[in-house]
Amino acid sequence: MMHISIYLNILIASAELTLSVPTPEQKSTSDSPPLLLVSFDGFRADYLKKYSFPNLEKFFADGVLVHELTNVFTTKTFPNHYSLVTGLYAESHGMVASIMYDSASKKHFSIQNDSDPFWWNEATPIWVSVEESGFKAASAMWPGTDVKIQNHPLNYTFDYNYRVTFQERLGNLTQWMIADKTVKFASLYWEEPDRSGHLYGPENSTAMSHVLKEVDNYIGFLVKHLFDVGLWEKINVIITSDHGMAQCSKERLIKLDECINSSSYTLVDMSPLTAIVPLENISEVYKNLSSCNSHMKVYLKGNLPDRLHYKHNDRIQPVLLLADEGWTIVKNGTLPRLGDHGYDNTLPSMHPFLAAHGPAFRKDYKMSSFNSVDLYPLMCHLLGIPPKPNNGSFAHVRCVLVNEQCGELALAVGVVLGVLILLTTFSCLFWLMKNRNVSSPRPFARLQLDDDADDEPLLE
Ligand SMILES: [Zn+2]
């Protein structure tokens, strides 16, 4: 059996050699191409199936498409934009909602009042890490980039102003990237299709097809502009979003005034995740709300399901009401919006998509999904900067990169095992034939007919 085991050892050694092909060294920041991260707010993943996107399709045909991202709870704009750039769940980065109240400092936060670093300082966004690594970051309206987070203002940014056109936002970014080669990370935020999704509802196909065509034209403009200024194929580009959008209806209203006295609580944030501070008897408030409507789940802060990662932060209020998909919680009155988001992050209607293109990415590569917190370690890898502690996983996303062994690895394992089995079979046959010729003129007859001690030498 000696030569068989030698064969096996050689084969196993070669298999190990094939399987342990190291992934290429992570590049240092100076070698890495710049990265442009673009978010179209409220771009629900399945818009891609229902509407036509000729420019976006061209973009990912030559790159990567991830059909759905599982985003973080609550599926609102600020929590999710901060998760994309920190890799953290909302309870960990502290941007737990788009409207917040901190009871210790008595501070209030809203989209119109978002510039106090206090709200952002619990996490380090990637643009701060890029600048800490000695490079520059630029931004056009990405939430938080006009705030002095961790005492770190960005030079290449401008104050939020929704009137600044998409073309101006992009034009400024590319100008900065071309003029200053140390700009390694740029982020761009655009308000649509979120605004139209709220206004008309995602099921209004006439209105949505109009705005989604506009969004697709911006993507066409982006590609052409990058080509014209010589950045196309030179930089990595990621296009994604923060959340999706659900259709609401006046038939699906939950009126709190019908269940509870409005003087017994303070309302911090409204539908679909309603944050409540009971003023006197918390258990009474909880009890009244619990029996209010079967389409609204009521939680004491500590009782939210672990999978939501939404309890360990002082900015999360003592009582939380979560509406079922498409239901709207109001104090009283009428439906405020035809479309909304902020629902459970396991709902496909809340999920955005992701597409990527550039030298680091595979061509024509599709993935069904990954977690939006996984984008952060991927971006750190692309930029060659060390990631801060985060809730994401580079292993989940590395297959989108051209330099990573993924499908090839599975193929290599299959080929090596196949060759191993074949060679072992041939070796055994060869060894059996050889021994038969030496020790017995009729080995098969003896093997078939007898199993007495005379056969033993054959089996040694
Ligand atoms: Zn919105």
Secondary-structure blueprint of this entry?
Elements: H1 2-19, E1 35-40, H2 47-50, H3 54-61, E2 64-70, H4 77-86, H5 90-93, E3 100-102, E4 107-109, H6 126-132, E5 136-140, H7 166-179, E6 183-190, H8 194-200, H9 205-228, E7 236-240, E8 246-247, E9 253-255, E10 265-269, E11 273-278, H10 282-290, E12 296-300, E13 319-323, E14 328-330, E15 339-340, E16 354-357, E17 365-371, H11 375-383, H12 394-397, H13 407-439, H14 443-449
Parallel strand pairs: 1-6, 1-7, 2-17, 5-6, 9-14
Antiparallel strand pairs: 2-16, 3-4, 7-16, 8-15, 10-11, 11-13, 12-13
Helix pairs in contact: 1-13, 3-9, 7-9
Bound molecules: zinc ion.
Zinc ion (ZN) binds at residues 42, 77, 194, 198, 341.
Catalytic activity: P(1),P(3)-bis(5'-adenosyl) triphosphate + H2O = AMP + ADP + 2 H(+)
GO molecular function: bis(5'-adenosyl)-triphosphatase activity; metal ion binding
InterPro entries: Alkaline_phosphatase_core_sf, Phosphodiest/P_Trfase
Labels describing this entry:
globular; Alkaline Phosphatase, subunit A; alpha/beta; Gyrase A, domain 2; disordered N terminus; 460 residues; seven-stranded mixed sheet; binds zinc ion; bis(5'-adenosyl)-triphosphatase; 17 strands
